[in-house]
Each structure stands twice: as C-alpha cells, then as structure tokens.
C-alpha cells in the first residue's frame, strides 16, 4: 500500500529514511515552532499505563514493556529525565499489526482512549479509523500505516499539542506478525529516534 504521511502541524519538517538492516521505513514530523530547548523531562501518557486499547492496535503487556524500555533508553540517551509529576513532555505510542487507514484533523487527532482528558488541548488528540464517523468533514488528513507499524508521538505537556511524531513500518517477523524480538523492537525505536535530532546539553 502506498505510504502517505501528511502533516497535522502548521510548521513541520518531514524526513524519510529507509532502514538498513531490516526492510523498514521510518518517517517523522517535527513542529518547527516548538521550544525544544526548554524540554528537559518526560512521562508516559495515561494510555500507556492502562490496559485500554482500540481494536485496531495491539495491546500486549510484554510487548508494550519492551517498547517502553526501548523508548526510555532513547530518551535518556538524549538527556531527558523521567518525571511523573508535571513533566515537560508526554510520550505515547501505538502498535499496528495489520495495515490500517486513519483519519486525522488539522491540529489534532481524535480518540479518547489514546490521551487522557487532562493531557491534550480540548481533549481531542488521538486517532480514529477511517470508517469511524466523527461529524467533522473539513481539514481531514489521511494516514496509511503498513502492517507492522510502531508509531511514537511526543506532546508538549503544558500546551497539549503534538510537537514530534515518528513511525517505523514493516516491523514484521517471518509469520508477518509484529516482530516481538527485543533486539528488533529496540532497533526500530532507535531508528525512529534517529529522526529526533535533539540532544540536551548535559
């Protein structure tokens, strides 16, 4: 399926890098107006800490722990500190085993199961499958995720808006299921965060 990623942000830079060792593809968006120099701490979004998951996303506790470990490693390598109370950034992710087409809206995604009510502006940040009716027809953006996609999003916790997102597609094992090998999960996370070109001064 043709991969299409249209930005949901007003000012973004889009970078695409083919992965070397695996047949993955990595894409990222960055809000060029976000104050990245001021971000020092992060925490996980509420969805990460609950068992809730939508039907089209994988909800596997062991796999989620592997992904969280890999993302924690990448954030720490860039100088960010975990802070559960009043962090600068919130991090969330989704795992798609099957190909899926999503609809986003200008400035936000919609899905109450993805971000907590106090984590985003207007409680309207998230994602919905293309077939879901939202009553909003203007400013739509289509996202096509291939099978085996790991999506990572980072939100400015004070403003409640996405400032960076990246995803790797094609993270599949020999049975065409999402690859749960910890080494491959870490590699996918590493290649996603290779697009996050910010390292804090130590």
Number of strand elements:
10
- Percent range for β-strand residues: 25-35%
Number of helices: 2
Write down the secondary-structure element order. EEEHEEEEEEEH
Largest sheet: 7 strands, mixed
The assigned structural class equals: alpha+beta
Overall pLDDT confidence? 74
Any idea what the shape is?
Answer: globular
Count of folded domains: 1
Give the strand order of the largest sheet, numbering strands 1, 2, ... along the chain.
1-2-10-9-5-3-4
Signal peptide: 1-21
Pfam families: DUF4136
Domain DUF4136: 26-196
Organism: Arundinibacter roseus
Task: Describe the model.
This protein is an alpha+beta fold and 202 residues long. The chain has one domain: Double Stranded RNA Binding Domain (2-Layer Sandwich). It is 14% helix and 29% strand. The chain has two helices and ten strands, in the order E-E-E-H-E-E-E-E-E-E-E-H. The strands form two sheets. It has a seven-stranded mixed sheet with strand order 1-2-10-9-5-3-4, covered by helices on one side. It has a three-stranded antiparallel sheet with strand order 7-6-8, with no helix packed on it. Strand 1 and strand 2 form a beta hairpin. The longest helix is centred in the middle third of the chain and has 17 residues. It starts with 11 loop residues before the first strand and ends in a 9-residue tail after the last helix.
Tell me briefly what this model is:
The protein is of the alpha+beta class and 202 residues long. It contains 2 helices and 10 strands, in the order βββαβββββββα.
